[in-house]
Amino acid sequence: MSLHEFALQIGGATAAGLRRPGTGRKVLALHGWLDNAASFIPLAQHLPSLDLVLLDLPGHGRSAHLPEGATYTTPAAITHVLAVADALQWDRFTLLGHSMGAGIASLTAAVSDRVERLVAIEALGGLRGPEEETAQRLREHVQASRALPGKRLRVFPDLAAPIRARMMANQLSAGAARLLVERGVHAVDGGYSWCSDPRLMLPTAVRLSEGQIDNLLQAIACPTQVIYASPAQSYYPEPLRSERLRHLRDGRLAVLPGNHHLHMETPAEVAAIISAFLA
Question: Does the reported pTM lie above 0.90?
């Protein structure tokens, strides 16, 4: 059965995505920062039995932006994920996340016993923020927030330009970049513009310390499969990323050669790890 568009009303706003019913485990997939539900299309083809929901997180893809005055925060994202599960009438489910989505998924699993299994690709627990950077980080967020109104979004004359931009920014193949771009832009006068909320580009106001992340990882009770690409990303280096696994009660690690979007570029290899874990 192929993926199809779906939309739910969550708190009066649209949560969109792609869905494929199946007879296997219920799996809610959460994409990375400035990506969208199409991030998991290549992987879905190799996981045919799963009851799969690929969500556009708020402000991404075809989901609604947050209302004026609201802020994109991790607690709000966790609440949104659980509200989506409520709307799907899923009591227990598996979370599959990539990058930012893996951070949200792992912290959701830390605070909710509804998550029966967790698959975290290229992140676990989220990005840390050293305590001595707290004031400067908050200052940068406030200044950027005040400067944001009135900024004009870039308009591309055709899809080739944003595809090239994604390829350069994320070392993606043309096929993977096209999947993300086709769901990540909308037509405007003169061409195409990104449909993601510009507020997503603001510096994060407050980040967790490494100690706080450790505490949250220790609270994850469900079995967890972590998948990392090699070499590691500069912002999530070794040995930090592997050391985080020691805080999991039931965690396992797989490392595959590839880039940050390995689930798009080598989906068969990633799907084999996920299938064995979910079995």
Answer: yes
